[in-house]
Amino acid sequence: RALPIIPVRTVDGKGWGGPVGGMNDRQNPVRLLEYNKDNTNEFQRIFGNVYIDVEPIENLHIKTNLGVDQGSFYRRTLQRSYESGYLKNDQNAVTIDQNTSNKITWSNTVTYDFNLNKHKFNLLGGTELYREKFENTYLRKEDFLLETPDYMYPDAGTGESFTGGSSTSYSLVSFFGKLSYDFDSRYLFSATIRRDGSSRFGANNRYGTFPAVSAGWRISNETFMQDSNIISDLKLRAGWGQTGNQEIDNNAIYSLYIADYAGGDPTWETSFGTAYDFHGTGSGLLPSGFRAIQIGNDDLKWETTTQTNVGLDFGLFDQHLSGSLDLYYKETEDILVLPPYLGAIGEGGNRWVNGASMENKGVEFALLYRGGKTDGLSYEISGNIAFNRNKITYLPIEVQNNYGGDGLDDNILGRPINSMYGYVTDGLFTSEEELQNSAVQPGKDLGRIRFKDLNNDGVIDDQDRDWIGNPNPGFTYGLNFTFGYKRFDLNLFFDGVGDVDVINSRKYQTDFWSVDDVGSNKGSRLLNAWSLSNPNSTIPALTTIDSNAESRFSTYYIEPGDYFKLRNLQIGYTIDQEVIESIGLSSLRMYTGGQNLFTVHGKDFTGVDPENPGFGYPLPLTVTLGMDLTF
């Protein structure tokens, strides 16, 4: 939105170019990039494991394993003073963020294998303990005489200091057992049971039990299949199992309170201070009160997913052609959420709950063809496609009106998760006749968006909203090609999604916000905006007043997000071993490649990249050069 006529530097080359009177207040992006060069981010991580595995008797293994993962992060951000047109900042400061994370996993297992003629058994039992702790510290110091990276450390500052910090942790304990059975490599069976306990839940529901069973029939090993010249592998399998999810805030079960001092300019910021003077600005000297930010819930329990699947694996023509077909049904119950709450509850009404149930069902298919090597040429072609359908199957009564819809009876129950709710548009008003014969719609005029009167009461209001979009792809797919010719190799990977709706937020910017933003750069779409001389346009007429409420969420902003991408391409060449042996190498391969090389999408998508439709920022195209060395 910055005007392109603004120079990067002032005429003398010493200062930063910036907006002057009549221009909007967008920052000089080159200045931001230049100053960001001195902001350092450092991350260090040490991880690994040690184990002991003993075999007191044949085929009985007792193993203990200790894994450690420790990380530390340090970031220093310099806030410099500057003058860029009428934008300026006289306050310099340094901010330092530090955090450490410590993760420890200790597992103990016992396994035993034994055979009875054609019967093969494997028994497994074990426990696992996991603990994770995270600590962070924050500090800020203002007013520095010199603005250089070597000088701007807290001790050199002469102004105010601000500090903060916190710590959080959680633990997980698991007990598990598994039985695997194989009869003559034809009939397969396994059963698993887990019992997991998490400190993220209260004492009432800290533990959850999750069983699973599966069975398989390797049909190709039956005697009646031995003489088949076509089928080289055929396996039918089925499974049922449950898994638990405990991915919530470590403090989800607690009632939380925080001590705050008021801060910031009350003209622009809401004051949440619990200690303040008559001017509404905390002095930092008064004793602080506390305000609630969360209501505890001792009854939180594990989110549970139950899945049933049936599958078929096959191989044909001595495994030159192989693939798999899977059908699944998955139901998730007691989904852990932090829903909106009624304003009547007052401040601090956030409360984690087990809020909903959801089902997914679908089909997945994968196919691979592996060509034989002929005259130095080899190749593999594989592809996969998956279809999925999703819907919310249950909502507790107390939260039904917090899940989308109109906040009353029209909620998301029975619809896909994250479904979009809003108004339905019906083009633009293009004639006086359309204006006269349409429903009452405050702000309607020629070139303005026309909204549908869904309940036929003659008035456009909240009762005319409906479910207008599904952000969950109906299907996803991928294609992979691998070719080799003598010392050259080539790999291409394509992927895509279909039958999906996305919100093109860029339209808010180009079609409306930039129009109202006096002195700003405009979206090029506006060159084709509706006017009496351009009556066939689908882009509303220019206006600086949203009297027609066109910023309300509607189908105008929803577009098809289908795409097909060349996700990755790589070409390589392996140097002849006789050439590289003289320099002490056993192999040397050089390669080049790229990611996100091109995207194909439908003409109805008007943004930049349907995979990231937000404000039009595309995923970057990346080109790589490299080599693989083996000594």
Which descriptors apply to this entry?
single chain; 631 residues; mainly beta; 17-stranded antiparallel beta sheet; two-stranded antiparallel sheet; 4 helices; globular
Walkthrough of the structure:
- The protein has 4 helices and 29 strands.
- It is mainly β and 631 residues long.
- The protein is globular and about 90 Å long.
- The strands form 7 sheets. It has a 17-stranded antiparallel beta sheet, with no helix packed on it. A two-stranded antiparallel ribbon has the order 3-4.
- A hairpin with a 4-residue loop joins strand 13 and strand 14.
- Helices cover 4% and strands 48% of the residues.
- It has helices spanning 29-36, 432-436, 506-516, 577-580, and strands spanning 40-57, 60-79, 82-84, 87-89, 93-116, 119-142, 161-183, 187-198, 207-218, 231-245, 256-258, 291-294, 303-316, 321-333, 336-337, 353-354, 357-370, 377-394, 420-423, 425-428, 449-451, 465-469, 475-485, 488-498, 501-503, 558-560, 563-574, 587-601, 622-630.
- The mean pLDDT is 91.
